[in-house]
Every structure is written in C-alpha cells, then in structure tokens.
Amino acid sequence: MNLLNVFLTMPAEAGAEGGILSQLSGFAPFILIIIVFYFFMIRPQMKRQKELRKYREALKKGDKVITTSGIYGKVSEIKDQFVSVEIADGVKVKMDKSAIVMDMSDVGAKN
Q1: Rounded to a whole number, what is the distance in angstroms from the first to the last CA of the chain?
Q2: pLDDT tens digit string along 75-102?
Q3: Burial 20-35, CB ≥16 within 10 A → b, else e
Q4: With helix as H, strand as E and coil as C, how does 38-50 read?
Q5: Mean of pLDDT over the chain
Q6: For residues 71 and 24, what is the distance between their CA atoms, to the nearest angstrom?
Q7: Which of 90, 41, 78 lies closest to 100 in space, CA to CA?
Q8: Engineering a disulfide at 73: which of 29, 80, 85, 92 sits with its beta carbon 3.0 to 4.6 angstroms away?
Q9: CB-hemisphere CA count at 13 Å for 107?
Q10: Whole-angstrom Cα distance, residue 36 to residue 26?
Q11: Sequence ranges of the domains in the chain
Q12: How many CA atoms are closer than 13 Å to the CA of 1, on its beta-carbon side?
C-alpha cells in the first residue's frame, strides 16, 4: 500500500483492528534506518566540511599545508579565492583555496 493510500484511508481504518498502527509500524524500520544513516554518515561528514572551511578561512602566511594532490608546502600569499604555496626554494604555485586539505601538524598526529 502506498503512502497516499495510508493517509487517505486513515479516518476509516482508525477504529479497525490493526488499522493505522499496523500500517505505520511497517514504516518504523525505514524511519530507523534513515535516522541511523543521518547520525553515522551525514552528520559527521557535515562536521568535517565545516572544520575544513574554518581552517581554509583561517590560513595565514607561513602556514605549512598539504594540497589535495599531496604536495607539501608553505603558504606565501593569500587572496580571496587563491593562495600561493611555496613548494621548494623559490618555487611558488598559485592554487585555489579549495585545494588546501590540512596542515603539517595533522600529519604527525595520524602517524
């Protein structure tokens, strides 16, 4: 029975044995799966994205960073949408801020 039929037949079956409660109890596992999915997958991902956005906004000259391509470097210039990263002596790469993943202190904590 589809969801529309459940709501359209609600008043007629409300007093019947096994009426609306039995129909809604069939949805309980699906509702539980959605709640578990939210708390174990969606919410943590949103939290990580928020932390990364704050980190990118707080970047300053001289910070050591890692890019999405795995290049280690030091921030030498910051503009609105891009940063210049010094990857070797005298070698600077201009890249989008979204390419910055984390700082060097995070790497030491993971190993």
Answers
A1: 53
A2: 999 998 999 999 999 999 999 999 998 7
A3: beebeeeeeeeeeeee
A4: HHHHHHHHHHHHH
A5: 81
A6: 53
A7: 78
A8: 85
A9: 11
A10: 17
A11: 3-54, 60-110
A12: 14
Q: Does the structure show a pLDDT above 80 at 33?
A: yes
CB of 93 within 8 A of CB of 71?
yes
Distance (Å, whole) CA 82 – CA 45: 24
Looking at residue 58, its amino acid is A
The structural architecture, per CATH, of the domain 60-110 is Roll (2.30)
Q: What is the CA radius of gyration of the chain?
A: 26
Tens of pLDDT, residue by residue over 55-82, are: 999 999 999 999 999 999 999 999 989 9
Residue 1 is encoded by which pair of tokens? 């029975």
